[in-house]
């Protein structure tokens, strides 16, 4: 395995496996991994089990990270899987100012009498109103979309316009229901990277436009959410509202934006979701994708493409696109 980008802070969590072995929860320090299923007395089966007892485990994890006497495995000898298996995925849409402007302009009707400048100004005004009224746009994804950070991405044969959407993902630490914004970050265990792939051709229902969007169809193909590589504790990320989100396609930078451009930050999103649903330990709250998607560039994903996504302090994921049925 090539050298992987190191996360911020003294340690990170991940899911690993040795050749021919079963996945295990691991503590990453430097380029070595401690198997937490053996290092913790209660033998957690996976990272979600560690997160479910987050307040209790966090001091123990710090202690383990500082203990050089414990046996660790070289990261280079292990396969890296998605860091956690969530029960629920909450996805924020239209949450980056520049991204929304670009999408709205790209999807304008040919009969729209406005100039591009007029359209952009009106859209910006509408977003300011959304932010002031505290109305994020959140929908639900399926856990079966989760894939590893270095796994191949299978492009379904029916997906005519598959697109990338690199995002900051918050990992929930404890049950959260009707949480005030001021307390919401206390419910976040840490952060990871998600690439929330979308088939642009099936976002909207053409058979009955009044139905609107079809998120099941366009976003929930198996493996459409490469996740990780690491779960980085929240304390290691100074400000989730000031991170750089960068995606390269075949080495060319396509997305490169700060989370400062988000309309709704992590605290507001977690609070908003908790007003309608109960968040559970290990759940993901995806915070939306910045400008620079394929629909903006007029260049959608195709077989052989390699995506490299990174976020400040969270490492880098690298995935290759393959056609459905390809060997």
Automatic annotation (TrEMBL):
Gene3D superfamilies: Fumarylacetoacetase-like, C-terminal domain
A Pfam family hit: FAA_hydrolase
Keywords assigned: Hydrolase, Metal-binding
Segments forming domain Fumarylacetoacetase-like C-terminal: 89-320
Alphabetical list of InterPro entries matching this protein: FAH, Fumarylacetoacetase-like_C, Fumarylacetoacetase_C_sf
Keyword presence, Hydrolase: yes
Record GO terms (molecular function): hydrolase activity
Keyword field contains Hydrolase: yes
Annotated family: Belongs to the FAH family.
Protein name, entry field: Fumarylacetoacetate hydrolase family protein
């Amino acid at each position: 395995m090539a050298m992987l980008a190191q996360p911020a802070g003294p340690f990170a969590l991940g899911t690993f496996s040795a050749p021919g072995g079963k996945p295990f929860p691991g503590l990453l320090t430097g380029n070595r991994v401690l198997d937490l299923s053996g290092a913790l007395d209660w033998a957690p089966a996976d990272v979600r089990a560690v997160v479910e007892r987050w307040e209790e485990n966090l001091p123990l994890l710090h202690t383990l990270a500082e203990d050089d006497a414990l046996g660790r495995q070289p990261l280079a000898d292990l396969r890296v899987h998605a860091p956690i298996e969530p029960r629920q995925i909450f996805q924020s849409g239209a949450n980056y100012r520049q991204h929304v402007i670009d999408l709205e302009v790209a999807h304008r009707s040919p009969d729209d009498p406005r100039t591009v400048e007029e359209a952009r100004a009106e859209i910006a005004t509408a977003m300011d109103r959304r932010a002031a009224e505290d109305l994020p746009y959140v929908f639900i994804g399926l856990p079966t979309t989760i894939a590893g950070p270095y796994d191949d991405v299978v492009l379904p044969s029916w997906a005519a316009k598959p697109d990338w959407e690199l995002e900051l993902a918050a990992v929930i630490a404890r049950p959260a229901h009707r949480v005030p914004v001021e307390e919401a970050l206390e419910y976040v265990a840490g952060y990871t990277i998600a690439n929330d792939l979308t088939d642009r051709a099936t976002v909207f229902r053409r058979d009955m436009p009044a139905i609107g969007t079809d998120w099941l169809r366009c976003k929930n193909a198996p493996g459409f959410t490469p996740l990780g590589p690491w779960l980085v504790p929240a304390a290691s990320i100074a400000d989730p509202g000031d991170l750089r989100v960068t995606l390269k396609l075949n080495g060319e930078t396509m997305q490169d934006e700060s989370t400062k451009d988000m309309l709704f930050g992590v605290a507001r999103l977690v609070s908003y979701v908790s007003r309608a649903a109960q968040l559970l330990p290990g759940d993901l709250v995806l915070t939306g994708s910045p400008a620079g998607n394929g629909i903006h560039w007029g260049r959608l994903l195709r077989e052989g493409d390699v995506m490299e996504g990174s976020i400040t302090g969270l490492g880098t994921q690298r995935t290759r696109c393959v056609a459905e049925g390809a060997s």
